[in-house]
Amino acid sequence: MDDDEPRNVKELLVEAKDASELLVDVAYAAVFFNDEDLADEVEKLEERMGGYLRRLRTLAILAARSPEDAEAIESVLWIANAIDKIGDAASDIARVVTAKLGIPDALRADLRHADEVCGRVKVREGSQAVGATLRDLSLPTETGMWVLAIRRGDDWEFDPGPDSVVSEGDVLLYQGPEEGVNLIRAVAGAPPLPPAPETDAPPLSELDRAVDILVEMKNSSEAAVGLAYSSLLFNDRALAAEVATLEARSDVLHDELESWVLRASPEARNPDDLRGLLRLGAASEAVSDAAREMTWYVEHGEELHPVIGMALEETEEIGTETVVEAGSQADGRSLRDLRLQTETGMFVLAVQRGRRWIYRPRAGLVFQAGDRIIAVGPEEGAEVLEALCRAPQPAAETG
Description:
Layout: H1 9-33, H2 36-63, H3 67-98, H4 105-112, E1 117-122, H5 134-137, H6 139-142, E2 146-152, E3 155-158, E4 171-176, H7 181-187, H8 206-234, H9 237-264, H10 275-294, H11 296-299, H12 306-312, E5 318-323, H13 335-338, H14 340-344, E6 347-353, E7 356-359, E8 372-377, H15 379-389
Antiparallel strand pairs: 1-4, 2-3, 2-4, 5-8, 6-7, 6-8
Helix pairs in contact: 1-2, 1-3, 1-4, 1-12, 2-3, 3-10, 8-9, 8-10, 8-12, 9-10
């Protein structure tokens, strides 16, 4: 076995969890760019994740030496099965490209700017990125952008780690907030993108409405996965209940999507172009279903094996929760004002306000004292987020 290969259940669960989230991101990127090479890489990533899960199942079974052991390890196998389903759904998303199911080209821009921008930039000679590691660049904290992959010639490095070195000519595949695009382009030595021309938006067509629903399904399914992992990490039944709410909403949206696509068929130049939208809708719903399945133990108050929490604490991204305190920097300010993702690298999955939940909040959301924030991102970003939400401490009196 390679020294870098995961060796035990915890390490295998860490790798499978990280791979499942990466798979969905790369699969959607393949659709956004209509890139068959990226879609092929999704299949390779899924194979790798499948290998982790098969090894995990084998080790878990070997570890069960009694009925009590078997019952304890069952939750690990259950979650592994849900992760496997997320990988299958990501593969279905990528097949929209490889099977040439079709998406109208005019709609790709709408999909590409679904809450987060997905883009790519080539590293220029003399830029600050050349020769630097991703740790040195601190892109999530400095620009709000995550590097999903690095292409060097014909080779791809997916889910690059902090020690990955960037070279001249590398193409960075990134994802993050729109305001971070020109920041990461500056790091790579690329010129800024010009602002999009302001035009009067035409009336919404049937096809536009179908895409709007699909964008909501994509965002909802990604939020469901993030909240599902957070519910496992914190063993939080309230978060598990919100995953159930998102999954139910996904079912409704899928029904609406099918209806709008059927209505849109007369305006499509080629009705076959709409098959891709239906496939993406079904795959997004499958992601939400798998997220709901993952939370079953938490939702029903059943005990989770300790290795699950240990694994989730060691993943590349950490989950964090914090409460906005009165008088803190976050109190009364919006996500846009705080430049939260750009300044801390943290992505806000959801905000709980009283009994209400706001999923994947928009930039205009204004935080209020008492808001509970669920976010994911780098460890150092979690500390900055916590500081933003903490009320200033009164100065110590001097005698």
